[in-house]
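User: If only I could read backbone structure tokens as easily as an amino acid sequence. Those tokens are not coordinates but codes from a learned vocabulary of shapes. Could you go through the record with me and say what the backbone is doing? Here is the record:
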Amino acid sequence: MNDYDRQDLIKQRAGLEPPAHEGDYWSGEDRARLKRLFDMGFGISEIALELRRGEPAICQQIAHMDLFERKRRRHRVRPALPSGCLCKECTADPEACTIRRLQKAAKEAV
């Protein structure tokens, strides 16, 4: 990107000089050029200058065309609950302990 391009970009961002194709509908040719430039690794600003459109329009079209692969979040694996009584040292009467009673009932049901 040369100095003239940088100046044009600064003017566009400041709203002093709108892009030439601002507000125009996207043609199939424009979309094909966008895809080609994006796949070649050009940045958003460089593509915006090349297509003479605003950076937000480029981002919106990239999202609309689903060119950008979003990172999928891994689901957190929760640790299993410890079996048995949850207290460190069970001082409760084994017959009065609710957890032990539920575990015993579950074992008997199986």
Remarks:
- The two ends are 71 Å apart (CA to CA).
- The first helix runs from residue 3 to 14.
- Residues 3-64 form one domain.
- Helices lie at 3-14, 28-39, 44-51, 55-64, 98-109.
